[in-house]
Amino acid sequence: MRKVAGPVQVAVNREVARRIQKYYPGGEKLKYQSPKDWIPNAAFVNCYKGGSESVGYHCDQLTYLGPRAIIGSLSLGVAREFRVRKTVAREGPSGPPSGQDTERADAEGQIAIHLPHNSLLVMHAEMQEEWKHSIHPAPVIDPHPIAGNKRINSE
User: CA triplet 43, 4, 73: central angle to 5 degrees?
Assistant: First the structure.
């Protein structure tokens, strides 16, 4: 991970600067985000063995990384589908999400992002605040020449 930290840092900071310039020229929404450059300071690794291994919709709890954390997610090995959907507030008493909440989130739309080997996905703070993400099961996968049927995701 240390070998790729430099190039990942450059790519993430370039994307953050582009996003600020294009979407937040006044910077109002970013007032709680650190003004410093993004630096990779933690690594979490997930290994998916075959297409049936997956992770359901969730958002990461990142408060220990500071306010409005940005994640650089590097995918290696087998290509997989990364899906996102809007987080929908529950209507009614709190508790586990109901089937109705899931149906409503699905009705608002899902976005599928193809993540091939050696791809970098930048998850801005809004990704954790307003969206849930998952790695969907894959009925068929094309083996990677080195990784075989495995996919490693490092955040």
Answer: 45
Give the separation between CA 8 and CA 13, rounded to whole angstroms.
Answer: 9
Q: Which of 114, 97, 95, 93 is nearest to 57 (CA)?
A: 97
Give the integer Cα–Cα distance in Å for 6 and 151: 22
Strand order through the sheet with 131-135: 55-58, 131-135, 80-86, 110-115
What's the rounded Cα separation, in Å, for the pair 30 and 35? 9
pTM of the model: 0.77
- Tokens 């709190």 sit on residue: 94
Residue 102: how many CB atoms within 10 A of its CB? Answer: 13
Task: Give per-residue pLDDT as tens, 107-134.
Answer: 667 889 999 999 999 988 888 788 899 9
3-state SS assignment for residue 16: helix
Sign of dihedral through CA atoms 67, 68, 70, 71? positive
Alpha carbon distances (Å) from 101 to 1, 85, 98, 126: 38, 12, 5, 20
Distance CA 65, CA 42 (A): 9
